[in-house]
Amino acid sequence: MLFSQKGERFNTSASLSGAAGTSSSETRSTNRYHWLELPVNAVYHIRSFQVFGGPYAALGVGGKQRGTTLGYSPFVKYAPYHFDDKIRYGSDTYNSRLDAGVNFGVGYRRGPTQVQVAYQLGLVNLHYSEPYLLYDYGHDFARDAAYNRVVQLTGTYFFNL
Question: How far apart are the first and last CA of the chain?
């Protein structure tokens, strides 16, 4: 079991036209998701070199969403709205608590020291798709899909107990 942090950045804009003109908003956000992961890898050793791969499952346990929303209308420029919120999971959010996929990579082990480079390919859409609902700050996640795609560099030291 391991703890990992993954994230996304998004920039979005929305416009609404009406009798008084066009109003618009822009949102920029950086989201960091915290995961508990369970990788199950098969490892093939060629002397000190390793090739490995297998499935993984992960559980979302928290995170942060930070950003700014700017609003404009034909007559008024609204003050920026800054947000710094905890990532929430559950039926009333668009965030999936579960992730799963495959990972594969190469490594090198010499004595008690090991270095590995891996690629993780998430196969679960992390944003629920609920029609007619808007996510906080005006972004419609029902049109988006998000998958974890990660390159990992891991250094390990093994202790004799």
Answer: 20
Both structure tokens of 70 = 């700017």
* Cβ-based neighbours of 161, under 8 Å, separated by 6 or more: none
Please report the pLDDT score of residue 133 as a whole number: 47
Q: Are 44 and 50 in contact (CB under 8 A)?
A: yes
What Cα–Cα distance (Å) separates residue 131 from each residue in 93, 111, 128, 134?
13, 55, 10, 8
pTM value is 0.75
Q: What sign has the CA pseudo-torsion 125, 4, 88, 84?
A: negative
Nearest by Cα to 107 from 93, 118, 123, 91: 118
Q: What is the CA 110 to chain-centroid distance, rounded?
A: 33
**Number of domains into which the chain is organized:** 1
- Is the separation of the CB atoms in 148 and 122 below 8 Å? yes
Looking from the CA of 3 toward its CB, the CA atoms found within 13 Å total 5
Looking at residue 118, its pLDDT comes to 96
Structural domain of 59: 2-157
